[in-house]
Design goal:
The chain is α/β, with parallel strands linked by helices. Helix content is 56%, strand content 17%. It has an eight-stranded mixed barrel, surrounded by four helices. Strands 6-5-9-8-7 form a five-stranded antiparallel beta sheet. The N and C termini lie far apart (130 Å).
């Protein structure tokens, strides 16, 4: 070391040494400014920065060496071999270029060291090639130990400099790396010069040492070095300003941004990334591997090793997709970051982080509103259909369809606010009955449903609990409100699609309501088929009246005891082209439901009056009228027009209605019946004894006739109580001056018993079956007031005819 110091002090021009040192320091600083920029770049841009780095570094090293050579031992004449001098310059530029390129070729920790060693070796080659170009008057000798030491020092310091430049923070690393690099160059040169020994000897008398010219040359070389280094620093400055403008823009972005190079190191980031992940300023830096960045984020966020590994695995998979990836990342504090992964053509990747917490919260609220009822908070019909589709592949789900009874009455009586409060309480009670795995839905209005995993028996038990719970009174706004609930139950089998299951549950619910409400009904096999049959009938019914498929049959009435024909009951039949004769019990309920009964009923009244106009004046016709017709304001007009059009006296028309029709809408019935009575039309109560049988109705509506139901007549011979009912009704009607008719008389004993009780009129298979209009007319002509010729004894009736139900007489 002392020998090297002595060489510098005693064998060199210190002014030129100082110039060389300045050139060395400046070029080293410029070199690592450029080198750091090359490390941040990729592809062609990186190669361009490496070329500029190599030119500045090579020129600076060569100029340092050349100026220092010029300052060596001014007492000896010297010169330079121009070829070797140029070769030494090329070795400096190309050699360091190779070393720098190696140092950025990969991500391994030793790669910068290897590249730095190559740079150091190139500097040594440049130095000793330049020394070979150095011509001096004397005998040159070399100390090999110093030569080896100089080469080793150059390689070690250069390797350390590049290692530091790649691993430390950007400002610190450039300063330390430049100092190490400059020190390595200086130590190489002066250790090598210490190894250089010259024994003066006049060899070429023409060689002279013009020391002034040599010094001028040294400053000229220094000037060239300043130009080269200055150009490098200017390039760095221009790039710095451009990057500063870009950085300013990036730091004012609302999104966090990372630019990741193909070697998976951070090449660019903005301050928003630090804010979003709550990092410190030193937690992220240029050149940091993306894995280190994520590890730092995980440490700050408290991630477990498993979670960190999962995040790293996701990032690594996205690097290989080469497609845009957008995912939401939920942090532990509830913050939601949208991570967008955008590959670039140069194999770099831009990663942006947006805080979408508020947006996702709003989206979740909107989604909740879209799939939930705002009043009760229960999932709505949309959610129900979605869940039903999702769960349709699961075997064993049971669907409960609920309909609140008397809910419309609550709205009409207490107001919609009370109805809303009631629905909230209903939802609360249902939640208390259902387990966590069961889902309650509000489908709209007073319709609800429950999806459960229970078996059928347990699900029916739940349905019964629901009916029981909702039948208990509610306390709403100071009022006690009582409602009920009907439930239809269907099993969600694997073979059934969702639409079919919904139909099954709806039909079961319909049956529960049809059988009296406040009950549970399980779907039974064949319900859908029956419904399909009804739909077909309903479709065909639209054309039946237009095509003349309906016809009236007439069943005679006979007065007692003389058995004289006094009138007929008009009974509608449907002669279907494919199904044959369809009895009223199959199509009249459908017509009542869809409203077609109004048009059909008008046709029945018109046809009955038309046929009645062709019969003797003492004959009357009884027409059945449904409750739907009684609620229609058109009924009076239909009857009036028919009588006027066909010239029929009102007393020849008798309107039959059931007890149920009277109870359903008594006030309206009073108005309609008053109008009929004002016209002179007679009124009969049909099927008396099977409904409410209120004596108040007999007094209020002033019926002209009571028809005793066949269910009493048929068993009156064997059942004393049934006979007592018939006797009591007959006596009651006699006391009230109301005519009586017994239905379904099928034996002589029944007829004799009725005559003995004082019944005024009878009809039944014993007397006559329902007849077509022509046969009824023929019966009138043949009757002549005597016993009907077509009356058949019971023994002549088939079992099927003998047991025909009373519903056949529905109008």
């Amino acid at each position: 070391m002392f020998a090297v110091a002595g060489c510098i002090v005693y064998e060199h021009d210190l002014w030129l040494v100082a110039v060389a040192a300045i050139i060395c320091a400046a070029s080293s600083w410029a070199t690592f400014q450029l080198y750091s920029r090359a490390c941040l770049s990729v592809d062609i841009e990186r190669e361009a920065w490496l070329i500029l780095t190599s030119l500045v570094a090579g020129a600076g090293i060569w100029c340092t060496h050349f100026i220092a050579i010029l300052g060596y031992d001014e007492t000896m004449p010297m010169g330079f071999d121009p070829v070797l001098t140029i070769v030494s310059f090329l070795l400096a530029v190309l050699g360091v270029a190779a070393g720098f390129r190696i140092s950025v070729a990969g991500r391994g920790r030793l790669i910068p060291v290897v590249g730095g060693a190559a740079v150091g070796l190139a500097i040594a080659l440049m130095h000793y090639t330049g020394m070979q170009a150095y011509r001096v008057q004397g005998i040159v000798s070399w100390d090999r130990s110093y030569v080896a030491a100089s080469i080793l020092l150059s390689m070690v310091f250069s390797a350390t400099a590049l290692h530091v430049a790649r691993r430390l923070g950007h400002r610190t690393r450039r300063l330390i790396a430049a100092a190490l690099f400059a020190l390595g160059i200086v130590l190489l040169h002066f250790t090598g010069m210490t190894a250089f020994k010259v024994e003066p000897m006049l060899i070429d008398p023409l060689m002279n040492a013009d020391f002034g010219a040599l010094r001028a040359m040294a400053f000229a070389v220094a000037g060239v070095a300043v130009v080269v280094v200055g150009a490098g620093l200017a390039s760095t400055y221009i790039d710095y300003r451009a990057r500063a403008d870009t950085s300013h823009a990036l730091n004012n972005m609302s999104s966090g941004l990372l630019l990741v190079a193909p070697d998976r190191t951070v090449r660019l980031f903005n301050e928003r990334v630090i804010e979003l992940f709550k990092l410190d300023a030193g937690d992220v830096s240029i050149g940091m591997p993306i894995d280190d960045f994520l590890t730092r984020v995980g440490e700050r966020s408290g991630w477990t090793a498993h979670r960190l590994g999962r995040v790293l695995e996701n990032y690594h998979s996205w690097f290989t997709t080469h497609e845009t990836v957008t995912v939401d990342h939920l942090l532990d504090d509830g913050q939601v970051l949208e991570v967008c992964w955008q590959p670039m053509r140069n194999e770099s990747t831009v990663i942006t982080y947006d805080d979408v917490t508020d947006a996702r919260t709003r989206q979740a609220e909107i989604a909740h509103m879209a799939f939930h009822d705002p009043l009760t908070g229960l999932p709505n019909r949309r959610s129900f259909r979605h869940d039903l589709e999702t769960l349709s592949r699961e075997r064993g789900r049971v669907l409960l369809m609920l309909d609140l009874d008397r809910f419309k009455h609550v709205n009409d009586t207490f107001g919609h606010a009370a109805g809303d409060a009631l629905l909230v309480e209903v939802a609360r009670r249902l939640k208390s009955l259902c387990a966590g795995s069961e889902t309650i839905y509000r489908l709209g209005g007073d319709e609800l449903s429950i999806l459960t995993l229970r078996d059928m028996d347990s699900a029916v038990g739940l349905a019964q609990d629901v009916v029981s719970s909702l039948s208990n009174p509610f306390r709403i706004g100071g009022e006690t409100i009582s409602i009920g609930c009907s439930v239809g139950v269907a099993c969600l089998g694997r073979e059934a699609d969702t639409g079919l299951v919904l139909q099954m549950a709806d039909f079961a619910l319909y049956k529960a309501k049809e059988y009296g409400r406040g009950r549970v009904h399980v779907y039974e096999q064949g319900m859908l088929e029956d419904a399909a049959h009804k739909r077909n009938l309903e479709r065909d019914m639209d054309a039946a009246l237009r095509l003349g498929q309906f016809e009236l049959h007439y069943q005679p009435f006979y007065s007692l005891p003389d058995r004289r024909l006094t009138g007929f009951e008009a009974l509608i039949r449907w002669r279907h082209p494919a199904s044959g004769m369809i009895p009223p019990m199959d199509f009249i309920p459908i017509a009542e439901q869809n409203g077609a009964i109004i048009e059909i009923g008008a046709w029945v009244i018109d046809q009955a009056c038309r046929q009645l106009s062709r019969w003797p004046d003492h004959v009357y016709v009884s027409v059945n009228v449904s409750p739907v017709q009684l609620r229609s304001p058109e009924l009076l007009g239909q009857i009036t027009r028919a009588m006027e059009q066909h010239g029929v006296q009102p007393h020849r028309i008798e309107i039959e209605l059931t007890e149920t029709a009277v109870v359903e809408s008594s006030e309206q019935i009073v108005a309609v019946l008053s109008g009929l009575r004002a016209l002179g039309v007679r009124i009969a109560m049909d099927d008396f004894g099977t409904g409410y049988s209120s004596l108040a109705y007999l007094k209020r509506f002033e019926f002209d006739r009571i028809k005793i139901d066949r269910s009493f007549i048929g068993v009156s011979e064997e059942d004393a109580s049934a006979a007592a009912v018939v006797r009591a009704v007959t006596q009651l009607a006699r006391d009230l001056s109301i005519a009586t008719t017994a239905e379904g008389v099928e034996s002589e004993n029944q007829l004799k018993s009725l005559i003995a009780m004082g019944c005024g009129t009878a009809q039944g298979y014993l007397l006559s079956r329902p007849l077509t209009a022509d046969k009824a007319s023929a019966l009138l002509e043949a009757d002549g007031g005597a016993t009907p010729q077509n009356a058949l004894p019971l023994s002549d009736l088939s079992l099927k005819d003998a047991s025909r139900p009373p519903a056949l007489k529905r109008a």
